[in-house]
């Protein structure tokens, strides 16, 4: 018997065993396992050795490094272990809505240098906020609201120069707002931050004028319900981008409002109630965006009815209680077209109350209790909503009109809103753990409370505020792969913090329960603010309840994994080998078994994505041909292996020959993997409308017999990515690279500037640029693309999608999508063409590396890029022509602010210049020369490496899980 195969097997087994144990020692597994060890429960599928390979719920990886932990509403109890620091690649940590997580945050959290988002909303963490959070130089999003943190706001937060969102509201923080003290930074250094949400603490001292200057980008400044004292910040008028200002309920805030206050012309919501503000009543003339004004209960000088009262055309809600204002109320006030609520009690309004006949149709409360009104003149169509005049001279003891009671007159008092149940017949009786949804199905909803900190409206009797929200939420979640049957809202009311609070129930679609994975996604959408309410609802926070999973969480005390490490090191060498062999065999067998399932799971990260393929989901056509299943079966010789030219997690790609002889590529979605329906439709609808030689042509599609297939022109030379790595056998010298980049730029510029409506591709990357037989670049894969508004200039707010490494950080933070996001990705692609490296590899980000190299360069040679340049280029005897301009242009494309980036047509113009300089000739078809192949390997097919389903559908940018 020949033993050598066995020997080989044994050796490989041994190697494998040691490699695996090395992995686990390396950190990922130990970090996450240690983290979970400090919790009393853990998600039930947290078993196995490697969280990344073993598909742990709520975990996203890059390779075998954990990049994202999202476990909101998992009912976790316990503490946050200091071992978290070993998760060194972590970018997103979301443990929101786990009320049982307590104790202080470990200072080692400051070691997570890659962290972008730290979200711990609605837990029970206490103690001081560790100052080490200030070391997280990349942090953009910090939400610690609704915990029990005490002590001061650490001044070190001022070092977070990339911070966009800072929410510390609803804790027990004390002390003042830290500012730059000559050495250490303070909150005034956060010039990029748009949101300061600090309400509901015990913060005190004066509000430092330093944090209110024209360098600040603040749009929401929320300091309500604290103990701030001293004078009103005199420089507030300089923060001209401000949209929401809440300083209400500080009780001790004094002093006059500065004269330039009405320079805040963007201000929509103004809350100054319950302070001791003095001086003249502020002059709000010119603040034409104001919706909601509440200045009640202050100590302003006595005043006459101010003129701005009737000139503000967008006022919905005017609250001026107990302010010493006198005079007759002008009729024009009631004519403000969107006016809803007037709360004016406790002033000296006198004379006649004349609402007139064309008062705002939305007006539903006029509270004038305790004023000096003598006459109520009724004319024309009478006002029938609530009116309170008790405490005015008109309400003599003889006058028993309803408006002379403290409850006032009203047509009807609306009960609090509750979403109706739409049952066509007798509603079913639900099992005790389930609830009847508004669409009349029984399911376990995800529940929580949503609070809008500053809505633009106050008329809660107008149910459209809630029906609109229900519909919008349902569609936003569904667009993001979380299909909802319906959304139910209950009991909206303004709570004592003056937040509009309501309870919320989200019902799963097509199943009785959300999975753990669903809840991880849903919670993250809300905690990370990637769900945005419609305009006018203002900033919000959500507190989720624990979800009762069908799959119970498991106790954490006995870690599930076999801890092999001590085992291996703790026994004799001979024993070790034996053990290793046994363990490794087991591992291999287990892994073998799991692997196919796993691939499928990865392509389908959200198991709730089954979109019914109904006739209504057949996309709109613009010239693309509809194929039947039988036709495609025929042209691909029954999807034969010989025609199989690529494989992806979505399914397979086949070559086919149409009856006329045209070669096509047929992308066939895996049966049952319907989650791509939306992307499938998008791709057809957009691609069938665009025609350009640098955009791949869609020949047609097929939705038949439960299959979804796309038929493209056949592009023989694979992806740009494969050419850069040498995989496709096409060698790209510098001149060819310039030509390919130019072609791709033209394709993208066409989408931006000539397609109607303009299209943002959203997933520009080297694996989505295909090369034809003459190396013409063709932009492909429109699964994530978005048409822009009719004028094309507008931007759209959308769920962030794209591919990690190429994703525009501004788009990621603001969710505002514009063409400039593609420009960013294109800049990354240009750098990739230069370096031939993946944009994100081993924690190295090509943009950062190139910027650094260019900044540090000692000599002008190769722009200081010797180390980074693709060796193929660096090896050429002369420096690539136009390199310096090329690098400049690429770096302009990856400027942080979209406004600083060139347009794609500028990029085309620039590249045309280099191409001339490099002597390539601008005609796309000229000068390609003969292609040099490496060896005889046949090119891999373009579509194979790239699948629409590798994009993230959640709020995170796509993070590809690389196979080992
Ligand atoms: C913080 O702001 C102050 C004052 O604006 C400035 O002088 C200082 O350089 C800033 N520090 C940092 C680290 O940005
Ligand atoms: C008002 O704001 C503008 C910029 O929006 C600024 O130029 C002007 O100086 C400000 N006026 C006052 C009085 O602060
Ligand atoms: C309020 O401001 C406007 C414009 O700034 C000015 O014209 C008006 O006179 C001011 N009103 C009062 C009462 O100061
Ligand atoms: C991966 O996780 C999902 C969601 O928890 C689960 O449905 C699926 O069965 C898991 N697959 C494997 C291979 O563990």
From TrEMBL:
EC number in record: 2.7.11.1
Subcellular localization(s) per the UniProt record: Cell membrane; Membrane
CDD domains in the record: STKc_IRAK
SUPFAM superfamilies reported in the protein's UniProt record: L domain-like (SSF52058), Protein kinase-like (PK-like) (SSF56112)
Binding site for ATP: 667
Biased composition (Polar residues): 925-936
Entries under Gene3D superfamilies matching the protein: Phosphorylase Kinase, domain 1, Ribonuclease Inhibitor, Transferase(Phosphotransferase) domain 1
Region (Disordered): 925-964
Record-annotated Protein kinase domain positions: 639-915
Transmembrane segments: 567-590
Source superkingdom: Eukaryota
Keyword set, alphabetical order: ATP-binding, Glycoprotein, Kinase, Leucine-rich repeat, Membrane, Nucleotide-binding, Receptor, Repeat, Serine/threonine-protein kinase, Signal, Transferase, Transmembrane, Transmembrane helix
Primary location recorded for the protein, binned into one broad class: membrane
An example Gene Ontology molecular-function term: ATP binding
Membrane topology: Single-pass membrane protein; Single-pass type I membrane protein
PANTHER family on file: LEUCINE-RICH REPEAT RECEPTOR PROTEIN KINASE HPCA1, RECEPTOR-LIKE PROTEIN 55
The name this protein goes by in its record: non-specific serine/threonine protein kinase
Organism: Digitaria exilis
């Amino acid at each position: 018997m020949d033993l050598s195969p066995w020997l080989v097997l044994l050796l490989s087994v041994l190697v494998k065993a040691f490699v695996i144990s090395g992995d686990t020692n390396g950190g990922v597994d130990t970090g996450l396992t240690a983290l979970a060890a400090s919790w009393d429960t853990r998600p039930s599928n947290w078993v196995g050795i490697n969280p990344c390979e073993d598909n742990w719920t709520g975990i996203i990886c890059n390779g075998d490094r954990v990049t994202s932990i999202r476990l909101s509403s998992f009912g976790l109890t316990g503490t946050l272990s200091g071992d978290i620091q070993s998760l060194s690649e972590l970018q997103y940590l979301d443990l929101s809505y786990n009320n049982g997580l307590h104790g202080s945050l470990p200072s080692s959290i400051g070691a997570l240098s890659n962290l972008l988002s730290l979200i711990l909303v609605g837990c029970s963490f206490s103690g001081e906020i560790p100052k080490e959070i200030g070391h997280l130089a990349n942090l953009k999003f910090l939400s610690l609201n609704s915990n029990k943190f005490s002590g001061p706001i650490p001044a070190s937060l001022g070092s977070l120069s990339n911070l966009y969102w800072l929410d510390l509201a609803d804790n027990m923080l004390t002390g003042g707002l830290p500012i730059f003290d000559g050495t250490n930074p303070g909150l005034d250094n956060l010039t990029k931050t748009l949101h300061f949400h600090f309400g509901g603490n015990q913060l005190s001292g004066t509000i430092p004028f330093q944090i209110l200057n024209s360098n600040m980008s603040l749009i929401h400044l929320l300091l309500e319900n604290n103990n701030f004292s001293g004078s009103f910040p005199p420089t507030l008028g300089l923060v001209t981008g401000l949209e929401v200002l809440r300083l209400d309920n500080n009780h001790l805030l004094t002093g006059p409002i500065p004269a330039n206050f009405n320079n805040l012309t963007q201000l929509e919501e103004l809350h100054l109630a319950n302070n001791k503000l003095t001086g003249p009543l502020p002059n709000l003339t010119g603040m034409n965006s104001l919706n909601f004004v509440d200045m009640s209960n202050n100590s302003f000088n006595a005043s006459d009815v101010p003129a701005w009262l009737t000139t503000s055309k967008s006022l919905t809600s005017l609250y001026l209680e107990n302010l010493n204002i006198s005079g007759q109320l002008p009729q024009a006030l009631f004519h403000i077209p969107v006016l809803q609520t007037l709360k004016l009690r406790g002033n000296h309004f006198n004379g006649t109350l004349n609402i007139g006949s064309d008062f705002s149709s939305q007006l539903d409360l006029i509270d004038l209790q305790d004023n000096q009104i003598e006459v109520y003149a009724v004319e024309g169509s009478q006002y029938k909503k609530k009116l309170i005049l008790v405490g005015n001279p008109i309400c003599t003891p003889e006058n028993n009109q309803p408006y002379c009671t403290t409850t006032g007159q009203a047509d009807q008092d609306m009960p609090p809103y509750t979403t109706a149940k739409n049952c066509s017949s007798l509603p079913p009786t639900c099992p005790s753990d389930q609830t009847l949804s508004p669409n009349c199905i029984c399911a376990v909803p995800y529940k929580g409370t949503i609070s809008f900190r500053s809505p633009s409206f106050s008329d809660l009797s107008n149910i459209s505020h809630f029906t609109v929200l229900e519909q919008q939420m349902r569609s936003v979640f569904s667009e993001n792969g979380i299909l909802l049957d319906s959304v139910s809202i209950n009991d909206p009311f303004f709570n004592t913090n003056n937040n509009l609070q309501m309870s919320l129930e989200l019902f799963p679609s097509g199943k009785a329960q959300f999975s753990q994975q669903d809840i991880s996604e849903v919670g993250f959408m809300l905690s990370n603010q990637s769900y945005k309410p419609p305009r006018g609802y203002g900033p919000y926070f959500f507190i989720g309840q624990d979800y009762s999973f069908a799959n119970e969480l498991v106790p954490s005390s006995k870690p599930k994994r076999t801890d092999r490490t001590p085992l291996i090191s703790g026994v004799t060498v001979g024993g070790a080998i034996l053990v290793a062999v046994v363990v490794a065999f087991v591992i291999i067998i287990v892994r073998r078994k799991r692997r196919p399932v796993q691939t499928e799971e990865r392509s389908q990260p959200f198991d709730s994505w089954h979109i019914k393929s109904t006739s209504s989901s057949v996309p709109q056509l613009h010239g693309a041909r509809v194929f039947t299943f039988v036709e495609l079966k025929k042209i691909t010789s029954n999807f034969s292996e010989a025609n199989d030219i690529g494989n992806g997690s979505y399914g397979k790609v086949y070559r086919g020959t149409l009856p006329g002889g045209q070669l096509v590529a047929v992308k066939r979605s895996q049966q049952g993997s319907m989650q791509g329906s939306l992307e499938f439709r998008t791709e057809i609808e957009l691609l069938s409308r665009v025609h350009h030689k640098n955009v791949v042509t869609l020949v047609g599609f097929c939705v038949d017999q439960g299959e979804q297939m796309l038929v493209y022109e056949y592009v023989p030379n694979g992806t740009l990515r494969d050419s850069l790595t040498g995989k496709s056998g096409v060698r790209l010298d510098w001149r060819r690279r310039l030509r390919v980049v130019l072609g791709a730029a033209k394709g993208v510029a066409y989408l931006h500037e000539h397609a109607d409506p303009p299209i943002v591709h959203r997933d520009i990357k080297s694996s989505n640029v295909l090369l034809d037989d003459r190396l013409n670049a063709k932009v492909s894969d429109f699964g994530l693309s978005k048409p822009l508004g009719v004028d094309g200039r507008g931007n759209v707010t959308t769920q962030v999608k794209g591919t990690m490494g190429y994703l525009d950080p501004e788009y990621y933070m603001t969710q505002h999508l514009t063409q400039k996001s593609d420009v960013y990705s294109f800049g990354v692609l240009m750098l990739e063409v230069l370096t031939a490296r993946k944009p994100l590899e081993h924690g190295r980000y090509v943009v950062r590396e190139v910027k650094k190299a260019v900044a540090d360069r000692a000599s002008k040679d190769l722009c200081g890029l010797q180390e980074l340049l693709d060796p193929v280029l660096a090896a050429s005897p002369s420096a690539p022509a136009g390199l310096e301009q090329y690098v400049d242009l690429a770096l302009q494309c990856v400027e942080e602010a979209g406004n600083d980036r060139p347009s794609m047509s500028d990029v085309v113009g620039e590249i045309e210049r280099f191409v001339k300089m490099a002597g390539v000739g601008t005609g796309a078809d000229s000068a390609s020369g003969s292609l040099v192949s490496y060896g005889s390997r046949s090119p891999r097919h373009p579509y194979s490496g790239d699948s629409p389903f590798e994009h993230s559908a959640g709020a995170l940018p796509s993070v590809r899980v690389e196979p080992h």
